[in-house]
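Q: How would the structure tokens look for this protein?
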Amino acid sequence: MIMSIENSVNVSTTIDYYNQNAGEYAEATLNVDFSLMQDRFISYLPKKPHILDAGCGSGRDSYAFIQKGCHVSAFDGSTKMAAIAAKLIKQNVKVTSFDQFDSKTLFDGIWANASFLHIPYEHLAVSIN
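A: Here is the predicted structure in token form.
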């Protein structure tokens, strides 16, 4: 299902959906090949980059980045998806939302594949001081 920003759903409804359907979603998306996009993304980063996988879902992309020699930190808003991702990538996956994510770590790149479409448009505005 493709969702426009104008039709984005309530964030808590989205998290509920992923918590209830985590296994099926992970199974359906785990083997989707994003290697061309991942490789292009990595090409802009320094050697052995530290990547933040924001809204990591099943951990598919985190896993691929780790296999390519990257250091990855990951988070997801769904506890069930984060658990699936943590099992796949064999490391902790933080459970948090985009607006609650906090880190003192500097990342070389932020990967947010198909994540922002779940955020209501009015929540996308960012103020940088």
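DSSP finds four helices and four strands in the chain.

Residues 1-9 have pLDDT under 50 and may be disordered.

Upvote if useful.
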